[in-house]
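Figure S7 source data.
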Amino acid sequence: AVQAAPPAGTGPIVKLWSWNWNSVARECVDVLGPAGYGAVQVSPPHDSMSKGGSVWWDVYQPARYTLTSKFGDENAFKNMIDACHGAGVKVHVDAVVNHMTGQGSTSYGGYSFSKYNYPGLYSSWDFRNSPSCVIDDEDYKKNGWRVQNCELVSLADLDTGSGYVRDRIAGWLNRLTALGVDGFRIDAAKHIHPDDLAAIKAKLTGSPYLHLEVIYGEGEAVQPSQYTGIGDVHEFVFGRKMKEQFTGQIKWLRTFGESWGLSVPADRAVTFVDNHDTERKDASKNDATLNYKYGDTYKLANVFMLAWPYGTPRVYSGFTWSDKEAGPPSANGGFVTDTDCGNGRWTCFHRQMAGMAGFHKAVAGTSVADWYDNDDNVIAFSRGNKGWVAINNGSGSVTRTFTTGLPAGTYANVAGSGSVTVGSGGTASVTVPAKSAVAVHVGGGPTPTPTATPSPTV
Ligand code: LM2
Ligand code: CA
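Tokens for the predicted calcium ion complex:
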């Protein structure tokens, strides 16, 4: 199978994490398609460890390859794919294929399994369990073999070197492709040897887009560069840099790019401000990121991600939490309930970025020009003659005349409210309130609704 990278001008990915299938379907039609999001990444659809429960992480313990998850049944899954495709949105599935569960004997609905035994699917010899070993923290720097062959947090590690296991994994992914799935986020890809992953990829039908979760760590034995020949790779340094910059001075972003020590080249990177793991890290840890709790600071980092050319951006949207273990809103024995963006239980952050999804799509293929910064926390730049953005990460409002690079006209602010009128010389007088952004693009205005508070305006 040939790796199909998203074509230029494709909208960003949005990860609707822990959303049920019915809710994703509705969101594709109501919000994602109209906004210009290119693809939605959904949670693992396989049958898991338990049939739902009170934690979120049960879905990272596959129990069998059936579409019987806490997010809905096969019908709901298929309806979601059709609805999203109808809205012009591709569907990516979170594929957990490095391991199965860490469970002792478990039974439900007439199905019984244990850590190294899944009737009709895997038996003990399909795992690297003789002798079994568990990955230690020091393995990451010292021993790449153990990172890929020992157990990740004691989860039964599949022998991905075996032809039988490769066939089972490819068979599962191919079933999803046959249902219309367009791409896969490969969970724990760092723990699967690149040769094994390449062999599985060679068994895939169609040309699904692959993006691999390979977490970068300085000086580690397993590196993202070992995987870029297989698919796009998640750029974990990006989010760490966004936290550092947006909690400091963003003027430094002028030179942002590979030279900053990013781990994946721009044309192979999937970038994100946070994901479901990093949003839960203690703020003091050096691999912590911003998350929705940072409010406007988080929002501005996402505006930058969608405005600056680096990789394929992925907007993250999950549920609100205070307990790190707590699962999504659910009922009836753990089935995830329909998303309600008004009840405070879901962040629905991607809705705040809907206008920027369109911006990202509109400016594809252009380069950065007309850089401005105030030597502190206000920056602005254009993207060719297609778009212009100003980000004020400081504590005071800024009004000035900017060079936008845009044709004369009035454009809607897709990062907030109000509009910007560009004169014949490409300049515009704009007010950017503290901790806010103004983003305008060709095809994104003139704005139809004059607002009561006319800032930012001419
Ligand atoms: C991932 N990427 O590589 C996921 O993004 C991450 O969320 C997953 O961990 C991990 N890999 C495995 O797919 C989460 C969660 C873990 C949890 C696992 C499995 O962060 O805490 O581990 O899912 O559900 C849990 C317990 C852990 C226990 C393990 C096995 O928290 O204490 O280990 O189950 O029973 C003894
Ligand atoms: Ca492994």
